[in-house]
Amino acid sequence: MKIQQITENKQKYMDMLLIADPQEDMIERYLDDGELFVLIDDCEIRTICVVKLLNNRKCELKNLATRMEDRGKGYAKYMINYLCEHYSNSCDIMYVGTGNCTKTIEFYEKCGFVNSHIVANFFTDHYREPIYEDGIRLRDMIYLKKHLESEVDIKKVVDFALEAGRILLKSGAEIFRVEETITRICNRFHVEYVDTFTLSHAIFVTAEHGTEKAYTKVKQVPLSGSHLGIVAEVNDLSREISAGHISMEEASKRLKEIEKMPQQKGYFQILAAGLSSGCYGYLLGANLLESVMAFFIGCFLYIWVLIAQRHKMSKMIVNIVGGAIMTALAIVILRIPGLHGIQLGGMIVGAIMPLVPGLAFVNAIRDIADSDFLSGTVRMIDALLVFVYIAIGVGLTLSIYNNMGGGLVL
Questions:
Q1: What is the three-class DSSP state of 143?
Q2: Closest listed residue to residue 409, CA positions, set 301, 349, 330, 298
Q3: Residues 170 and 137: beta-carbon distance below 8 Å
Q4: CB 275, CB 295: distance < 8 Å
Q5: Which residues make beta-bridge pairs with 93?
Q6: Can you tell me whether residue 103 is helix, strand or coil?
Q7: pLDDT, tens digit (0-9, with 9 covering 90-100), for 170-221
Q8: Residue 211 CB burial class (10 angstroms; 0-12, 13-18, ≥19)
Q9: C-alpha dihedral (153, 158, 161, 162), degrees to nearest 10
């Protein structure tokens, strides 16, 4: 997708311009003096527009038309975002005039335009034939306006990019993904120089634009759990920003919504934990009965994890108590009369899976492989400590049971 300015043979685009303005002599009033742009996608012109420069750093969007079969695909919105950036250095305000059609007015309002003024009876005075849109006859010209930022607000851009990086890092994204996203957003909004240094729990960003002084920002990001849904959404958003499909104001709203994305429903997480316990147990050598028991233990174990998360308990308590609950349940099942051919180790090896920090461990290895040794080491230590906490919970429970029950059969 690209936008190209047309400086010659503008008349050959008249057929497409007539989609938005049905009277040719009205188009000719602004076509020669206006600047014509076309949006091309897959070697086809999808959207066309004309912008006319006014006095006192103002401009007017005189014509914006998208082919009927291409409407609803975001081409017109992409064009408006491009025009606002293109004219931001030479104009402070962009106007657009449209008929008294609610649908069209709402579209421009979504693009950041607000009401300006009304020219009464414009369409009845200047057009020979009545014009209808969505069954409504157009009479008055409704003018809307949008204030354009004349310069890049480097602080605003960096703050937004840093917030996107914080959400990624908090949700378990890799270091390279965080830095790539920050750089992509800054470059999209014309920040010429950006340098990012990311640790497992902090992000440092320095940016410069032209002759402005360097702007540096630091954001602390405490280690927390993973949410790959948020990572995927922020990743998609950054690519939309890079492609120019969305403005910074819209992106900021989207980012706030993404951060509030809830986890999967509790029952779904519990079921998934049980399935992972049973399946992994079977893959790691447990027999079928032991895997079934691991499924139920995993479900009960994850109920504890959800309760602990709701009360914001520390990771150490969650995993030590979780290891104890898992082992205690396995011992109880082992002592149920009539269950033969099951062993404690077979149940525990599967039931432990909901507590294992697999994603954090893999990301730590990946960071180290990408030469992010400090971040990788911190994440590795954090993951290894989880293993230690689980081992403490399992060991303490087995020790107490051995001392109280005189030993158990594994």
A1: strand
A2: 330
A3: no
A4: yes
A5: 58, 147
A6: helix
A7: 888 888 899 999 998 888 777 778 899 888 888 999 988 655 567 888 888 8
A8: exposed
A9: -150
- Name residue 198's beta-bridge partners: 203
Beginning with the edge strand found earlier in the chain, give each strand of the sheet holding 2-6 in spatial order.
Answer: 2-6, 35-41, 44-53, 58-66, 93-98, 141-147, 114-119
Give first-to-last CA distance, the chain, whole Å: 65
CA distance linking residue 96 with residue 223, whole number of Å: 48
Q: Are 202 and 219 in contact (CB under 8 A)?
A: yes
Which position has the token pair 């081409």? Answer: 75
What Cα–Cα distance (Å) separates residue 263 from each residue in 10, 306, 402? Answer: 53, 11, 39
Which two structure tokens, joined as six digits, stand for 244? 């120019």
Q: What is the pLDDT of residues 235-260, one digit of tens each?
A: 999 988 887 777 777 888 899 999 88
- The owner of tokens 């103002």 is 58
Beta carbons within 8 Å of 402's beta carbon, 6+ residues apart: 408
Residue range 272-297: mean pLDDT, rounded? 90
Fold of 2-147: Aminopeptidase (3.40.630)
| Cβ–Cβ < 8 Å for 235, 177 | yes
Residues with Cβ within 8 Å of 99's Cβ and at least 6 positions away in sequence, in order, are 123, 131, 133, 136, 138, 139, 140, 141, 142
- What residue ranges do the domains of the chain occupy? 2-147, 154-259, 266-405
Cα 406 from Cα 403, distance rounded (Å): 6
Half-sphere exposure of 255 (CA within 13 A, CB side): 24
Q: Beta-carbon neighbour count of residue 231 at 10 Å?
A: 22
Tokens coding 40: 């091309």
In contact, 306 and 269? CB cutoff 8 Å: yes
